Amino acid sequence: MNKPKDADDPIVGLSRSSIERLYSYYLLAIYAKQQGSSHISSKRLAENLLIGDTQVRKDMAAINLVGQPKRGYAIDETIRALREAMGLNQVHHAVLCGVGNLGRALLEYSRFSEFGFKMVGAFDVREEIIGTDISATRILHIDHLEQVVEIFAVEIGILTVNVWAAQDICDRMVKSGVKAIWNFAPIHLKTPDNVLVRNEDFAGSLTVISHYLRGQNRAMARDLEPPE
Amino acid sequence: MNKPKDADDPIVGLSRSSIERLYSYYLLAIYAKQQGSSHISSKRLAENLLIGDTQVRKDMAAINLVGQPKRGYAIDETIRALREAMGLNQVHHAVLCGVGNLGRALLEYSRFSEFGFKMVGAFDVREEIIGTDISATRILHIDHLEQVVEIFAVEIGILTVNVWAAQDICDRMVKSGVKAIWNFAPIHLKTPDNVLVRNEDFAGSLTVISHYLRGQNRAMARDLEPPE
DNA sequence: TAGATTGTTAATCGATTAACAATC
DNA sequence: TAGATTGTTAATCGATTAACAATC
Lengths: 228, 228
What we know:
Arc Repressor Mutant, subunit A; globular; two-stranded antiparallel ribbon; Rossmann fold; homodimer; DNA-binding
């Protein structure tokens, strides 16, 4: 326990940002394969992601992929290595807490299975929706959260409750064994170090947009003003 | 036009990451005010965001806020400066394209007005929903996109169409005058330099989670294995 | 006063980019 | 061969953190 990094572990030098790029590479590789290509170059991947090709090659090197000069990376090997690096071949159970509009939309989001996520249940407190199904996921009362997480060894918790309930539900998920939380509530959750929290920060996004437009309009006002 | 940075502009040294933090500061400041506090310290803000207090002070300095030793930042002034920096006092018109599950959830998302976003319409091609309203936003045919954007001087486009349509709809929005795009399609949109694209990358998030659990399970497998 | 807190400089850290030799 | 492409080192860039004097 607590071994300080394994020399065998093939994933070193794979930064958070690199990991976020892997799925885009993967989609492009699959697309290239469908088009009949046998190889794909760092240049082509880079153009699609609007990044530099050096960065692509670094990412590829980090997952132990070796390319061929003049040709690029072999498609099949690339797809295999990307799936492996992303952990796409494993299946993980997931629950969702908070079946409001956003929770409902996520339950109907069709891509979970591509990532090996299997929804075992969704939780809420509103009696009128409990017992119904959304996209084949049964809505259960939040009182049963702990039992379900333990019984199904659920590793992923999707948090779409309102901000006031978020930390409490988070704690309950973590206590019953959840290892990663996809958080949509505008709050920075406190969790043990070994639990991953991924924040989907809508408010942060809207702030960035609002701040940008503010800058634009200032610039425009300046341009229209006669010089003093 | 094209002045290379204005000495007057009070927002320099405000990085993308800083901007994303502003709304969290803002919520905390409002909460502190409701609790009757007259000041709020960088330490308290930092604890809530799980970051260091130095970083908070840097952010505050970047928006020209000056604190008082021993007390912290005056609440009212802080709230005012944060609203100003985020551009929250301005109103911007927005449209949404693609009224699927996610688009519907966003239309029902209640927080747009807090950011000064006013939804003027949502667009789709499915005749059966055109003409209906979701949260007081009328669903219109995508053919009318350009007209509406131009007439209302819409600056914000929310993109929840499927990936194959995304670049095309993006181009149409940009061409009619949209200045910022909140993109939920898993694609890196090509736009002119003066158009902001904010990607809400669900696939990237799921990849990070999947990769993390893969690492966890490997570590666990290693711990359970007898040493060779 | 002593202690808490700000403001700011310098150091650190980590990710991206430039440069270029190696290879097919 | 010439040219395209990889792989890798070193440089750059930008954000975070540490350190500490200044202040109330």
